């Protein structure tokens, strides 16, 4: 059966009635999501944890370098006691290495501050992409923190005595790892059961 267009080209004759051109090829409406009882608690907990991370990272320049310098000095002293007469790096090399590490440290702090600040904004605005990015970030953070604790324990065992960072730093790492792991599991369950930010797909209305 041939199709005949109206003079204005806006309608086609299907043999029984005039039909708007392209009426059968309209794009499907975008799927909308609605809040659930988990949505706001998830938002607030994630935003609060990101804010804690911002405060923690912002505090690092005031104490971290001096603490880790004492840690490195203790390790070097213990190494010299275990292996007397071993060569030490030239002072110029040590100075240049410290300068490079300091620059890398401050760049890392700045990058982390930007990441967690964007995460807070994405959480408050419920960006789906931010949800999955934070989920991945939490998983990586747990792995990194646990690895750091295990590394500290291993170094202490090899040196024969505890020569690592202060105990409160180790406990702080463990605490961060536990909270991040719990939040990771919560967000993962919310994503599987309901969707990003625990928001379910809206049920279409039946007219």
- SS summary, helix count: 4
Average pLDDT rating: 80
Spatial sequence of strands, sheet with the most strands: 1-2-3
User: From the alpha-carbon coordinates, what is the Rg to the nearest angstrom?
Assistant: 29 Å
Report strand %.
5-15%
Write the layout of secondary structure elements.
Elements: E1 4-5, E2 11-13, E3 18-20, E4 33-34, H1 39-82, H2 91-125, H3 128-159, H4 167-193, E5 200-201
Antiparallel strand pairs: 1-2, 2-3, 4-5
Helix pairs in contact: 1-2, 1-4, 2-3, 3-4
What would you say this structure looks like, in words?
With 207 residues, this protein is mostly helical. It has helices at residues 39-82, 91-125, 128-159, 167-193, and strands spanning 4-5, 11-13, 18-20, 33-34, 200-201. It has one domain (35-81, 93-197). The strands form two sheets. A three-stranded antiparallel β-sheet has the order 1-2-3, with no helix packed on it. The chain has a two-stranded antiparallel ribbon with strand order 4-5. Helix 1 (39-82) packs antiparallel against helix 2 (91-125) and helix 2 runs antiparallel to helix 3 (128-159). The protein is elongated and about 100 Å long. The model has no long low-confidence stretch (mean pLDDT 80).
In short:
With 207 residues, the protein is mostly helical. Helices cover 67% and strands 6% of the residues. Strands 1-2-3 form a three-stranded antiparallel beta sheet, with no helix packed on it.
Keywords:
207 residues; three-stranded antiparallel beta sheet; 4 helices; 5 strands
């Amino acid at each position: 059966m041939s199709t005949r267009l109206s003079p204005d080209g806006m309608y086609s004759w299907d043999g029984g009635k005039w039909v708007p051109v392209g009426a059968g090829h309209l794009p499907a409406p975008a799927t909308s999501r609605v809040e659930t009882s988990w949505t706001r608690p998830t938002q607030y907990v994630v935003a609060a944890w990101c804010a804690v991370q911002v405060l923690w990272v912002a505090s690092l320049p005031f104490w971290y370098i001096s603490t880790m310098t004492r840690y490195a000095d203790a390790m070097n002293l213990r190494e010299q006691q275990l292996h007397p007469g071993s060569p030490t790096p030239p002072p110029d090399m040590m100075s240049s290495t410290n300068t490079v590490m300091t620059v890398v440290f401050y760049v890392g702090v700045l990058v982390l501050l930007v990441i967690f600040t964007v995460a807070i904004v994405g959480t408050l605005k419920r960006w789906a992409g931010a949800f999955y990015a934070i989920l991945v970030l939490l998983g990586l953070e747990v792995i990194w923190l646990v690895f750091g604790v295990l590394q500290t324990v291993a170094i202490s065992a090899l040196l024969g005595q505890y020569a690592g960072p202060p105990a409160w730093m180790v406990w702080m790492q463990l605490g961060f790892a536990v909270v991040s792991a719990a939040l990771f599991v919560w967000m993962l369950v919310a994503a599987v059961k309901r969707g990003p930010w625990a928001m379910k797909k809206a049920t279409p209305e039946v007219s």
